[in-house]
User: Fold these one by one.
Assistant:
Number 1:
Amino acid sequence: MNTVRIVGAGSIGTHHAHAARQLGWSVTVTDVSEAALERMRRDLYPSRYGAWDEAITQLSPDRAQGHFDLVIIGTPPDSHVPLALAALSESPVAILIEKPLAPPAATVEQLAARAADSATRVFVGYDHVVGRAAQMIARELAAGVVGRPLTIDVEFREHWAGIFRAHPWLAGPADSYLGFSEAGGGAAGEHSHAMNLWQFFAEAAGAGRVRQVQAAMDYISTSDGAAYDRLCLLLLRTESGLLGRVVQDVVTLPAELGCKPGADAVILRRPDQEDDVRIIHKTRPDDFIDELRHIERCCRDGVPSPIDLRHGLETQRLIRAAHETARLGTRITLDLAPPEGGDGAPIRSQQHV
Ligand SMILES: NC(=O)c1ccc[n+]([C@@H]2O[C@H](COP(=O)([O-])OP(=O)(O)OC[C@H]3O[C@@H](n4cnc5c(N)ncnc54)[C@H](O)[C@@H]3O)[C@@H](O)[C@H]2O)c1
């Protein structure tokens, strides 16, 4: 990879611009908002990384056409699919679409079909699964180190005060897609890393894909017009019968984050034995540098990735199913065909519980 175009000069676009520069890539950033480009240059980038990097080019979207090896789509979820379809026409080596892939009710079949027919690799930015901690857990699960898991729990309990600290120009949830479940925000969309990690670990453990979903959601409407789920609790069962749970919320304060700032921990706990604690030191910028390195390696070696589009589509179905099961008050059984590509008809049957 040598050249990257980043669409969206917001929080994630700034992370990716820095990560790509650390890898020595040539970076062009576009945004529909001139104010966003200026904020990135004057405030966001210098406050995170010390100083603006003059080697980064900033352009309005209409002036940044032409070939780029990698196109990163770091805009709000409702623009992801149209921007990805447009980027596919340019035949880059790869496209990285930020998570969640789209709002819950969006149509994603055309993107899946076009990507399947294209030489361009399409990734969805669930970067935690390519992090060293998740990779270590997946390896140990696949090797049977803890035997065959009977259940898996993943929790992302993080009040979104932290997210708003990274977006000081937003007064609150109503100011962006974050405050609207329908737009891909709320706990289900914003913290969908947890669903994605659950799916990743279940597959690593040989338990297959999620077959049944039952959600309990806590939706709120605020006086300034926001309407979102602040709690998303999911019970999941895979095709092999493994039953587990995902909790995503934007209300837990203090947030339950990694073991300590600058580190993840993988702890192997067995009865009557000392805990086997593995500390993995990393910074937030490392997450995105590792993700871009991973994409480069997968494209070079032609090997599959846990952030391939097909996994992003699976998580997208889960977000949609979560809202649907809460709306219907039922458990939902997902139709597992087709195995790859389009998200298909997500619901085969509903059973009242
Ligand atoms: N992987 C992660 O850990 C992670 C972290 C943060 C954000 N994200 C995801 O990244 C996406 C963006 O989030 P953010 O926090 O950077 O948002 P943001 O509001 O900070 O920035 C989005 C930018 O996109 C621009 N934009 C909107 N439509 C556009 C278009 N059509 N063309 C060009 N620019 C356009 C906006 O002007 C804005 O500057 C979201 O989907 C979010 O969930 C992922």
Note: The pocket of nicotinamide-adenine-dinucleotide is lined by residues 7-13, 30-33, 36, 61, 74-77, 79, 83, 98-99, 125, 127, 167, 176 (CB under 6 Å).
Number 2:
Amino acid sequence: MSEFKDKVVLITGGAAGLGKCLAENFAKEDAKIVLVDINHDKLEETKAALNLGDRCITVSADVSKESEIIKYVEKAKQHFGKIDIFCNNAGIVINQQIKETDEASLDKIWGINMKGFYLGMKHVILAMEENGGGAIVNTGSVDSYSAAIGNALYTSSKYAVLAMTRCAALEEADKGIRVNLVCPGPINTDLMRDFEKRKNPDNPQAIIDSFSSQIPLGRYAEPQDVVNAILFLASEKASYITGTKIVVDGGWTHE
Ligand SMILES: NC(=O)c1ccc[n+]([C@@H]2O[C@H](COP(=O)([O-])OP(=O)(O)OC[C@H]3O[C@@H](n4cnc5c(N)ncnc54)[C@H](O)[C@@H]3O)[C@@H](O)[C@H]2O)c1
């Protein structure tokens, strides 16, 4: 029997990319799933494809708003009574040099990638404490500890997620809540497809080739490569692991 059977797993950004792949994997493991996303239509498509009936609920929510975070936590508790595993994952990327950025782009990316992660942890931790414990896996990035031109907004938000992960792990260790971070390099999802098109509208494949040539394993991650690390961190096999990160980058940053 799967150790995730009947565990309640809440996934933000669950309609697409990494979040969708997480949902598919937890579904195979007989978990109960709360899928959260701002994209209502894709969310419903993903739920239908999972075909889990009332073992999966969806919550349309914008994670940059605290009232919507409270809503997804309350709905999870109302429907399933608890949250065992939190995949704090919804994120966006904006690629601009500092001198090109403005207050609106700063507010947008930090609203989702920093405030959304922070307040997501706050309200889920409160729910997990009521339930005697749980596991949180935040989605960081190789940009949680490195730097690149045009990446200050995204990188600063992902550095913040690393810092929050470490603080939360210390604060919650004696409450039975483990908090860890997964740090992927480029993954084959829509997020990278959009990024490649913005960087080189005439030849997005050139961006893929350039990144792939810098990665020792010679390719982007597939979502499953990253999900494998998240499943490990969420599992009892990682019961002595908290406050740390797993890098899934094909050897790119050798961190
Ligand atoms: N794709 C990569 O190369 C890569 C690399 C490193 C880290 N990451 C991180 O992985 C996570 C998932 O990224 P992905 O590649 O699956 O991206 P994606 O764009 O494929 O999927 C992200 C999902 O988040 C949802 N979302 C966006 N803003 C939201 C909001 N305000 N509220 C609720 N949902 C919202 C989107 O609708 C989408 O369904 C992100 O945190 C991202 O920063 C991605």
Note: Residues 186-220 form one domain.
